[in-house]
Design goal:
By secondary structure, this protein is mostly helical. The protein contains 2 helices and no strands. α1 runs antiparallel to α2.
Length: about 120
């Protein structure tokens, strides 16, 4: 292998190792942050669930004064089902958009790597 090609290979390997170290640090930091974030979200979700259950009980009791308990429960169930449907549709749409954005980001990264490799190969 000519000396210039060996130099290019050495530079590429050196850069790849540097990027690998940076990514390793970034991934470790992201994992630590994610653990704390997930714990906080779970605790917040539990508190939110308790608040919703309390509100549900109060609303059901209030409706049961005017309607039969079965009718009150049915009305609340239909309301919750409608809300759940809307939220699921919204969530699916957001996840699709996020997936598309991720694919775009990967493609842009691949193109950038390919351009860099071409530039290094040309010298």
């Amino acid at each position: 292998m000519p000396e210039s090609a060996e130099n290019v290979v050495a530079v590429v390997v050196e850069e790849a190792m540097g990027v690998r170290e940076e990514l390793g640090d970034a991934v470790a930091e992201a994992v630590d942050g994610t653990r704390g974030g997930v714990s906080a979200l779970a605790a917040g979700g539990a508190c939110g669930l308790l608040a919703v259950l309390t509100a549900h009980t109060a609303l059901r009791d209030r409706l049961a004064r005017t309607w039969s308990p079965e009718l009150a429960a049915g009305a609340l169930a239909l309301t919750y089902a409608g809300g759940a449907t809307a939220l699921v549709r919204y969530g699916r749409t957001r996840l699709r958009r996020a997936r598309e954005a991720s694919r775009e980001a990967v493609e842009v990264s691949r193109e950038a790597v390919a351009r860099t490799v071409d530039e290094i190969a040309r010298g």
